[in-house]
Each structure stands twice: as C-alpha cells, then as structure tokens.
Amino acid sequence: MKLISAVLLLSSAIGFAQTPTPATPPPATLAIMPAPSGLPALIPMPREVKITGSLPLTAGVHIEAITDAENKFTVQDLTTALEERGVHTTSSIGDGVVTVALLSTTSPAAQADLKSAGLTFSPEMETEGYVLLCSGKHITIIAASKVGLFYGAQTLKQLIETKDGKPVLNTATIRDWPAMKFRGIDDDLSRGPVPTLEYQKRQIRTVAAYKINVYSPYFESNFAYASDPLVGLPDGAMTPADARELVAYAAKYHVIIIPEQEGFGHIHHIMLWEQYSKLAETPYGNVLAPGQPGSLDAINSWFSQLAAVFPAPYLHIGADETFDLGLGQTKADVDARGLDAVYLDFITNIHNRLLPLHRRLLFWGDIAVHSPELIKKLPPDMIHDMVAVPWRYGVQTEGFDKDIKPFTDAGMETWVAPGVSNWSRVWPDNNTALLNIQGFTRDGQRLGAVGQLNTVWDDDGEGLFEMNWYGVLFGAAAAWQPGESSIPQFEQSFGQVFHGDTSGKINQAQLELMAAHSLLSDVAKVGDGNDSLFWVDPWSPQGQLIAAKIRPVLHDLRMHSERAISLIAEARDSENLREVGPLKAMDMGARRMDFIGLKFELADQMVLDYQTAFNEQHQREKRSEVGHMLSVIDSTNGYCQDIRDSYSLTRDLYEQVWLSENRPYWLHNVLALYDQSTQLWLSRIDKLNTIKRQWATTHTIPPASEIGLPSELATIPTVK
Predict the structure, then answer these.
(1) What average pLDDT does the chain have?
(2) 193 neighbors 461 (Cβ within 8 angstroms)
C-alpha cells in the first residue's frame, strides 16, 4: 500500500493519469463504454502517462547509434515497425527529422533528462521499467535494463498513428513498469491445431510487442522425444530442432519458453500404445498410475529431454483433471488414504525425481479447490521449489480468492491462469473472457501472485489462434497494469493499437460479436454459442430442441453477425491496416455465427412449407402453390442448397485460416465435419428431387417423416 500511495502522490504532483481500475459489467448495449478521459490508445496502458502533443514523421526518424547486440536488435525491431507504418529511418539529422535515443539510467544524458523532467527511476523499475520522454523533436527512452529499453520501444511504436494519410507521433511523458513479473500465454498444441514454426515466431513477435514475456506450448503427445518415438505424432509434433530455433528466436524478444508436458493426466494418446498400457490407471485411459514404477521413469525421460532444449528455469508438469485416479490400479490406495493424499504423494514423487534437472516445476492448482488444507502439509522444499498455477475460466462475482489463497498463504509462488474462452466456440466468448481475465488477474495481484498464464485451449480440435488476439492482448494488459484493468479502455484501444484502425470499426465489430454471443448464452441458454450449434442437424431431435430455444433470438443474432461482417470489410479497405490475418479469422467467425441463425431459420421455414404442401396436395386449385413451395425448399436457389452452400463456403474459409498458421496435421478431421454436413444436405436435395418428380407425375408427396423432416415446429417441452 505504501508503494501505491507513493505512485499516486507522484502522479498528482506532475499531472499524470493513473491507470484506472473501475469495476466494469458486461456491455449492455453496443455503444462502446466511455474510456477514462485523457488516456491514449495504448496496450498495456502505462502506469503513468501524459500526452504532451504530436509530431509529424514525414521527414523521417533518426535512431542514435547503439553498439551492443541486444540493443541493436531493439533498434532493428523499432526500425522495422516504423517502416511498416510508413515512416522511413535516416542516418542523418535534417530539418523535421525526429531523433530517438535509447539510454541507460547510468548515462549522464539520461540522468540529466530525468532531472529536467522531475522524474525518478525507482527501484521497482530496475528489471523491466522504462521512462519515455519527448523534448521538441527528440525522443528519449531510459531504462536500467535492455528489456526495459525494448519495452519502451514497444510503447513508442503504439504512439504512432496515421492522421490524414500521414504518420504522426503522439508525444508523451511516460513512467512505466509491470505489476506482475511473469506475463504469459499457454498455447494448446495437443488437441488439433499444431502451429508451424514460422507462426510460432509470429506469436513470439506479437506477444512481445505487448510486453508478454512467457510462451508456454502445451504438449500431451505432440513433442518428438528422441528416446520415445511413439509419443510424438508424425507431422503433428514439435521437434527438438524446432524448439532450439524457437528458444533462440524468443530470447531476442525477451520471451522465455516454458514447455508443458502433461505428466499425470491428459495423456490418453500415449496410453493407447501397448508399450505404455501397463502405466495407465484405467485401460487406454488418460492418467498415469502413481503406483507403477514405470510412470516416474516415463516422466523423467520426457522432462529430461525437454530440459535439454528449453533452458528456461521452469518446466510445467500439468497434473490437472486427473479424473481417472482411483478408478483402476490405485483404487485400493485411494480407498485407504483418500484421493487427494494419493495425488499429492505422486506430485511429491515427481518433484523429487526431477530434482537433478534443477528446474522449478509449475503445476495446475486443482488441489486448492478440493483440499486447500493439504497445501500447507507439503514438504518445505516443495513449497519453495514449485509454482502453483490455479486456473478458473468463468466469471466469479465473489472473486477468485479461494483459488489463490491456499497457495499464497502457504508461501508458494503462484501464477494465475485465466482463459480466452475460445474452446468449442465458433468465436471466442469475449464477454466471459474479459471479465475472467480482469477479475482473476486483479485478485492474483492483490493476494501476491507474481505471474499470469493466460490460456488458449482447443478442446474440440477446431480452435484457430488467429481468433484469440482480443483475449490475449487483454491478458497482456491485465498482467502489466496494476489493479483492475479497464475493459472500456481496452475496447476503445484494441482496433487502433493492434490493427492500426482509427475508424473504430474493428472495435465496433468486436462488440457486435460479443452481443451475438450474449444472445446465445444469456437468452437462448443453449451452449454459449459453441460449435455444436454450428454442426447440429436442425431436423434431428436434438436440433429441434435447440431450435425451440434459440428461435426468439435468431433475427438479432444474425443482425449483429452481419454488422460485424460489414464493419470488418469496411475496415479492411483502410490504408495502413495491420494484422490482416486475424481479420480474416474474425470475418470467418462472424459468418459462422450468422450461419447458425440462417440454418435454424431456413430449417423452420422448410418445416412450415413442406407441411403446408403436404396438407394441400389434394386440392387441385393449390397445385401451383404446392409446386412452388417444393421448389423453394429444393431448387437452384432452394433452402437446402443455401445450407449446403454455407457449409462449403465456410469450409474453404476455415481451411485458409488453418493453413495460414498450422501444419496440415489434424486439419482433415475438421474438414470431414464440413464434408459430412455438406453431404447430409446433398442427400436431402436428392430425396427432395425425387419427391418433386413424384409430384410432377402423381401430384402426391409423402409425409415429412419419410424424408427425416419434422412435421411441425418444435416447442420447448413443458416441465411438470
């Protein structure tokens, strides 16, 4: 509290805007909520910032010479970004040229600039903090470390925007440092999509620009272990050579890579091998049996190989959701001593077995929810050595203390793990994601958590990382900024900062998709807009139940989705737009959301039309109308063809986005769903063509049930 008070006093004295921390409910309307006045579009928002004016950059930028390699890379990275924003760099200083200097706090020039500005470089800023100053046409970035200079340069990039077609620098005085030491992203590589090495490099470049410093690839059976060739899947596994190259690449961006190999549960694909079957808790299950000596041998083998190629001081052993434990080989032990005792014993054994690797072990904090009292019973060396990562992905109105306190109270290093709510969804549920990230990170900071590991999961195998940048960047903001990060500030800043869109259209498109999600989750109560709504056959019994629930919101669902499509298209026509790939993914997500509405609307209409045609088939005066209704259902522009065409189009769009980031591995599992759905409607088109021919010759048609069509619109069952 003393530190916060000191910062507030300093902010008041020099007129800086302190990062706001108001509680923010989900947006009730589509209007972007007002951001705190006077704050620029920056992600993360600096701890102390004051915009002082603007400078034209048409004459170019001169970056003062740097001699050491790390700072040379920062200059190179800044130069590349300037060129991408239409700003040329020059080796000479001429009229109108803006100069940029990167200075160590120990240099006389830096000390003089700080004194002139009335600023101090306090101890908490030493590791990653920086000061950014603007005096006339001269910009100075001051830091005690090379990473601080790098982060100052990332903020400088965001201060550049395009006005009237020309690049302009918003000048500012900034004093900034992170609230949390570790700010990371956990990326699921094991449930479908496996990124290419080039895309992982892009991920590193991008997250580093928003001051994320941890990338954690999640492995179940997707790392190619030399001594365990059965584990790594062909063309679907990261290799040791990939790892070494990515580690070296990430180091330049001050990002450490912490591999996560599930070392207890979630290893079903390994347990399928006969060689490993004796280690499974249940036959071909998901969990290693703690009582089997070979279990620790396998863990030691995997993590020893990971440690050889990932030099970071941390390894992540997973150990979450061990649902099979006690159902098979360890049942007697669990019955005698209790599930949590057996679980903690095995975690202890893993810790002891991996001690020679000299790494701190992260593990998922499931145990805090079930038996928080057991945490303090861990041996002191485990309390010291291990890092608990409690995870929670929903909105907790009562806060997240119960997930965090068992670990922090025990004195264990703790990182919180919110999520971007992308799993099994047509488009991420950012309504949930923003509030989850905001609240969990806020409570983590208050209770002493030193890190945040924001999570991306691909449970259904369909997840595309390009869809997730909204949640990823808000996670970056929440972990860097102190206290409760402002959702309105982020919503107003995202489009400009990430995409270079000053029109506000991308921000508005994001809100349209959030509103569409709200209709599905808050009104229809049918699964949070997840992928099952996209794939379900609307004529099936399940589809009819869903149709009855979702029917009232279909119009508004489609209107929000279609506004998003239009706004994205308009924004993509803008000059100097960046990150076009995620916009393609966003467009596809909006189209898939719209198709959910279209499919159920057309399915309803076909039920009504066919039943009308069936009822009127024997009325001679209605023959023309009956023929027309059958043609509306099935013809060149028939409803069946519309559904077929939508699946075909989204299949192509999906494949394009997938291949822009991922290896071909697993893609056909998803495309097969598109093909299956397309084939379903092709078969119905064939049946309806037969019925149309029957109508033409006999003027009779069969009951709807004979072609799998419901005879009436489903209604919500009455609960007695």
Answers:
(1) 91
(2) yes
